[in-house]
Specification:
alpha+beta; two-stranded antiparallel ribbon; 12 strands; 55% helix; cell membrane; ABC3_permease_C; transmembrane; transmembrane helix; Lipoprotein-release_system
Length: 406
């Protein structure tokens, strides 16, 4: 009975109830949509970091990451790779030769990270070949091809078929170099990566460096999915105790920080929205209680105890919050579903977003568990908002309340 009375009380002042319902609905819809937007942006950054830049796990010589010198190689890379591929959850592996050196064009030069790759294996681990905007990915079969980023190509003022010279030291410490012809130009969502990384064939760079073809500086590992990262990392470490095994979170701490900050950012954002709604609901319910002073006094005078009065106001507030909250969550989900397919184009701010490694076309994404958590927070907010108006009603004295001239 109290439930029915509370529901009818909500609609005694339709305008006031509708205003607060719309406020709750729009506030929560904005919150849910922003959470989907931020989650989608973070997931895309992580996906790019794993599939284009770092892969899930990297293995190096124990000294290499502290001192990336050419002499710190992984010997017998084929045997190491065979061990890694036997680990459950490993989808593909590839070995790389890495040199930090200078690249020169006829007009200028720049410092770059040269990565020697085995194209067939690299395609299984990274998706860089899908990011080509011009040319091909080591398909022409000619000697010394090189694939560079769009940003670096603009800096060096080169295009397809242009020649660039890479200068480096061989394994004996002698200065050497070779001319490479630009075969492909790629563009990712990370301008720093595009400007600082170039890719050549593993065979070409090992020949120029006079390096054992069965050695490498890095082995990249792609897993079936990110959920297997911890177990695969632990297993590989136990099998390769003499090498340095690190996950993408350790290799790219900036991306890991973005991932770990998601929860805290969302709590703060939703906290601000719910706090604003809390005061709005308190104000609405307080007005409702003050307008019904005479009625509440009469109910208590004819025998309605304080617990029932408290429950009636509590149910009014919770139902008001719940109706607005459900509508807001549904509206937020509909927006997320739409923009999860169409995407949100942030091309107008591409320079800023790409400098931080974020895609400019963001597809929203939101899990059901987060929506459930929001629904719980809305109910809790409604209960908290009901306390002050209900306490105000409980303090009424029936004899005085019935004489109030409303």
């Amino acid at each position: 009975m109290i439930l029915a009375v509370a529901w009818r009380n909500i609609w005694r002042s339709k305008t006031r109830s509708l205003v607060i319902l719309v406020a709750i609905c729009l506030g929560l819809a904005s919150g849910v949509f922003y959470m989907g937007f931020y989650q989608g942006m973070v997931d895309q950054r992580i996906n790019t970091a794993i599939k284009t830049e770092a892969s899930h796990i990297q293995i190096h010589h124990r000294e290499y990451l502290n001192n990336p010198d050419k002499k710190f190689v992984i010997a017998d890379a084929d045997s190491v790779t065979k061990v890694i591929r036997s680990v459950s959850g490993v989808k593909a592996t590839t070995s790389r030769i890495i040199m930090n050196t200078m690249i020169q064009s006829p007009t200028t030069s720049s410092g770059v990270k040269v990565t020697g790759v085995i194209p067939e294996d690299e395609k299984q681990v990274t998706n860089l070949y899908t990011r080509l905007i011009e040319g091909t990915y080591f398909e022409e079969g000619k000697r010394n091809p090189i694939v560079i980023g769009k940003k670096l190509a603009e800096k060096l003022k080169v295009k397809l078929k242009s020649k660039v010279v890479i200068t480096l030291q061989d394994m004996q410490g002698n200065m050497t170099g070779a001319a490479f012809k630009v075969e492909g130009i790629f563009e990712t969502s990370n301008t720093a990566f595009d400007e600082s990384c170039v890719f050549v064939r593993n065979d070409d760079i090992s020949r120029i460096m006079v390096m054992d073809p069965n050695s490498c500086h890095e082995i990249a590992v792609l897993l079936d999915n990110n959920e297997e990262l911890a177990l695969a990392d632990q297993t590989i470490q136990s099998k390769l105790r003499g090498l340095d095994v690190k996950t993408w979170r350790e290799i790219m701490p900036d991306v890991s920080l973005v991932e770990s900050s998601f929860g805290l950012t969302m709590i703060i954002f939703m906290g601000v929205i719910l706090l604003a709604l809390l005061f709005g609901i308190i104000n609405t319910m307080l007005m409702a209680v003050l307008e019904r002073t005479k009625e509440l006094g009469m109910l208590m005078a004819i025998g309605m105890n304080k617990f029932r009065v408290f429950m009636m106001i509590l149910l009014e507030t919770v139902m008001l919050s719940l109706v607005g909250g459900v509508c807001g969550i549904v509206l937020g989900w509909m927006l997320n579903l739409y923009f999860g397919v169409k995407g949100i184009d942030l091309g107008a701010w591409s320079t800023a977003y790409k400098s931080m490694g974020f895609d400019t076309l963001v597809y929203t994404k939101l899990s059901w568990s987060i929506s459930f958590e929001i629904a719980v927070m809305v109910v809790v907010t409604g209960i908290i908002a009901a306390i002050y108006p209900a306490m105000k009603a409980l303090k009424l004295k029936p004899a005085e309340a019935v004489r109030v001239d409303m």
